[in-house]
């Protein structure tokens, strides 16, 4: 994929206030070069256009929630369905804007970006297993909506059911705090990796999703190990072995036993070259 896209992604991720829409659009550009350039510009223009369709004078969180539902969900048909989890396009913002279908997290990006441009007090909420959107003050009066369900307003029990259904956990106040943009981007990339991982023909997608995640300022160190293992599975034994050794060096100071096992895997990968 284009090194230019990755350089722009890394730079955007390190901005003082990362632009969530731009980062999601660069993920789309990494997935498909046709979604770069004019396609990114067109997506920003479309988000601005949609924001301009929201009415003036909205004041309360419920008014914002209902107006955004009427525009995006009821009016334009943005929503999701179980089948959308089987499509890579459901995780690419350019495609979600075109198809008006996507995963909860990408639809939530559309909701927050459109409403934010119109002046709404809006934020993403990374509930376990199901991303939603909040309008209002997270420390005071707020309304939750589910863009996957066309922006339906969620009651307290609705949110509890979403979390319990996805994870079996109980809803806690910490789950309702505004999501950090970079954490949201990491979750988008996790979804792409989870989609690609069981599909052997999509190993290249799995690899670039890991590569982009490693460009974020914060990422789990274990991603480096996953990338190394993937390189070996793809037959790039030299690069895979080198990456395994690097990870072993990284953890050797606090887990020497595991580091030694990983070094043995690196040697086994090099042996495949003989």
Automatic annotation (TrEMBL):
Domain Protein SirB1 N-terminal: 46-190
Pfam entry (one): Transglut_core2
InterPro entries for the chain: SirB1_N
Protein family: Belongs to the UPF0162 family.
This protein's name: Regulator of sirC expression, contains transglutaminase-like and TPR domains
Species name: Actinacidiphila alni
Top-level taxonomy: Bacteria, Bacillati, Actinomycetota, Actinomycetes, Kitasatosporales
